[in-house]
Amino acid sequence: MAAAAMAEQESARNGARNRGGVQRVEGKLRASVEKGDYYEAHQMYRTLFFRYMAQSKHAEARELMCSGALLFFSHGQQNSAADLSMLVLESLEKAEVEVVEELLESLAKLFSLMDPNSPERVAFVSRALKWSSGGSGKLGHPRLHQLLARTLWKEQNYCESRYHFLHSSDGEGCANMLVEYSTARGFRSEVDMFVAQAVLQFLCLKNKSSASVVFTTYTRKHPSIESGPPFVQPLLNFLWFLLLAVDGGKLTVFTVLCEQYQPSLRRDPMYNEYLDRIGQLFFGVPPKQTSSYGGLLGEGLVGRGAHSRGLWVRPRAWCAGRGSRAGRGLERGLVPAGGLRAPSCFPLRVPQAELVRPPMNNCPLGSLSVGHRIEARFLFVVHTIPHLNGA
Fold first, then answer.
1. Measured between alpha carbons, how far is 305 from 315 in angstroms, rounded to an integer?
2. Which one of 185, 217, 253, 306 has the fewest CB atoms closer than 10 angstroms to its CB?
3. pLDDT tens digits, residue range 298-333?
4. Number of H helices and number of E strands within the chain?
């Protein structure tokens, strides 16, 4: 016990001496930078870095390079600052340091000070993310992605910011950024598409919670979106139902939902690709075997019924007149649930086994048109989801 205590005290004294030595060296280097001797100071920083690393003083080397980079940034010396920032990463990589909040914030700080258009910044963020993954093969630590996303958002680099938000767990921050992005750069007719891509991509990354948060926050805060659900925009209604279906995991619901909203999903060809992946992840759909869009949303999902014959009948009201409130809602892609009551001929929470041949005004399903059969099936499946029936 006494020997251990003495060793600990000696280690503490050595650490104090090392910190004191680093501080004295930093003072001399700072004086050189203040005098404008940038090249000389830069070379001295590099010399000390390799000296410390050779002595396995990784922490001292990292602290010295970090403070030096910040000093050069404050004097507008981007190249020297970026070089020392890369040395910070080198010290982390060789020391196999544990990923902690303090280090992630330091890296994010260096990133924020780099010239957005410099190639060094691209190299820096790539290595930083690789280090933060801890050798797990993932795309980087979620917290670092979040910090990078916020910096890029401040720079109004919305595309890059969105990418990093997708790999973080900050659905609320992503939604707030998308609201700003949409209002600043998008058309009014595209307000639903901004959040649609984010929701679908979050689901492709198996991040259901962030997908739900980004949807609810975006639709609540966007000034051009009326309160819902249901929403005026059919694509938003699709996303709402999709998030509910993901929780339930029923392939039938997912299949009919995608069939019913094909007109909205055709606005962006990537939606079908995302939904192929979502079907595999959450509904047990096997990977598609064909190229293009011949998989889940091709022959496997919408290749039957209306689409197998090259037909598509626009959703329209039935059990209600074409000009009725329910009819107008269906023509806009709104399902009569919540704000609109379902037709009285549809029982609620029907078991899956009873989803075939339901009555409609005393008419068997087989006598209906193709479009009406698809619509009837969709309404029955939707009403088996407890969330939509006040359950």
1. 14
2. 185
3. 433 333 333 332 322 233 332 333 343 433 343 344
4. 17, 0
